[in-house]
Recover the amino acids of this structure.
């Protein structure tokens, strides 16, 4: 299995530009999570999908952030317009909810975003 | 509201020593407590996890101790090795495979 695949790995953009981060979860997984990691705030949950439906988006910072999951194999996180304070590493993770499972969230390698 | 508090922020141990990281939680709805390990440039990866129906779980050199009444849990790394040098995060969730609330992380350095 290829694991959770994120793109781009690195993105440098200027303030005000639109940024789109992409995620391909592990095939067969039914939950998908977007996290943001910064030195100041650590790992924060932004949004959580189950069976492609957003379940908890209380962590989305503001209206500039939006996330979609049009199908079970693809999700996007969009920031429009971007601001320097959005600079962070954004992680996508997926999991399979089942009673006998390990409960593990599998993380991608992250997308490092720098907004100048 | 920080729901999972982790300490220490950083830890330096000698090779062969014991590394201990502590966490405390507030939300009694949490029912699953994993520890994740993260190396630079990589995403976090599950190390070991525990449910509150047991007080201890051991996997190799890694042990979780859990105290439900105190709402605390800890990670013990026995015979610490330089390859264990990484950032460790405790976390909590209402159930396995659900959204995790992470602690602030502990940067562990094991000296050769």
């Amino acid at each position: 299995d290829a694991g959770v695949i994120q793109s781009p790995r690195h993105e440098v953009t200027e303030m005000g530009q639109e940024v789109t981060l992409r995620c391909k979860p592990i095939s067969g997984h039914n939950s998908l999570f977007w996290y943001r990691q910064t030195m100041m705030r650590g790992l924060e949950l932004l949004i959580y999908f189950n069976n492609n439906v957003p379940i908890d988006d209380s962590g989305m910072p503001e209206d500039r952030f939006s996330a979609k999951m049009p199908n079970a194999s693809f999700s996007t996180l969009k920031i429009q317009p971007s601001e320097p304070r959005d600079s962070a590493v954004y992680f996508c993770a997926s999991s399979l909810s089942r009673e006998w499972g390990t409960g593990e969230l599998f993380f991608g390698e992250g997308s490092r975003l720098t907004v100048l | 509201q920080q729901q999972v508090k982790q300490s220490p922020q950083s830890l330096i141990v000698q090779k062969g020593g014991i590394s201990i990281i502590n966490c405390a939680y507030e939300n009694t709805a949490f029912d699953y407590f994993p520890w994740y390990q993260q190396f630079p440039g990589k995403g976090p990866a599950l190390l070991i996890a525990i449910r509150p129906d047991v007080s201890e779980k051991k996997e190799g050199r890694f042990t979780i101790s859990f105290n439900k009444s105190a709402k605390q849990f800890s990670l013990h790394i026995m015979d610490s090795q330089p390859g264990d040098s990484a950032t460790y995060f405790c976390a909590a969730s209402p159930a396995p495979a659900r959204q995790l609330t992470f602690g602030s992380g502990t940067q562990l350095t094991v000296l050769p």
About this structure: The mean pLDDT of chain A is 93. Chain A is about 0% helix and 55% strand.
